[in-house]
Amino acid sequence: MNAYSKSSEERLSTCHFDLRRLFREVLKVIDHSINCGHRGKNEQDEAFQNGKSEKPWPEGKHNRIPSDAVDAYPWPYDEHDFERICYFAGIVKGIAHCLGIPIRWGGDWNRNTQIKDERFRDLGHFERIPEGKE
Q: Which residues of 77-105 are buried (b: 16+ CB within 10 A; e: fewer)?
């Protein structure tokens, strides 16, 4: 059975309840790691400056407490395995749908199911869409 490492569990614990519930269900299907939950000011400034986020502090969904965003990747992680990362995202999106948790994936920001039309890709990023904002 898959299990989170201590660091993945700590990162996930900083996230909104819906994201914690979602990714614990995802873990039953596919092993993955949680790379980021809540980001403080310094972490967000660095992510923004390095082009890993388009949002400056405190505008990012990672900056909320609890975090409305999580970065997760299939384990073991291979940044060059685009197909596997997309497969993982499909599992996450499917389970989120079954749980009634609206999410947005960083590979399909506009949620039109077309990933080739995105100008900014953040393939490990999943964010909760608050009720009424769907």
A: eeeeeeeebeebbeebbebbeeeebbbbb
Side-chain-facing half-sphere of 103: CA atoms under 13 Å = 31
Helices 82-99/17-29 angle, 10° precision: 120
What's the count of helices (H) and strands (E) in the chain, helices before strands?
A: 4, 4
Give the other-Cβ count within 10 Å of 4's Cβ: 19
In 3D space, the residue among 127, 113, 115, 116 whose CA is nearest the CA of residue 54 turns out to be 127
> What are 53-109's pLDDT values in tens digits?
999 999 999 999 999 999 999 999 998 999 999 999 999 999 999 999 999 999 999
Q: Which CATH number fits domain 6-128: 3.40.50.1100, 3.40.190.120, 3.30.1380.10, 1.20.950.20?
A: 3.30.1380.10
Contacts of 99 (CB under 8 A, 6+ apart): 18, 21, 22, 25
Tokens 């790379």 identify what position?
35
Query: pTM, whole model, 2 decimals?
Result: 0.95
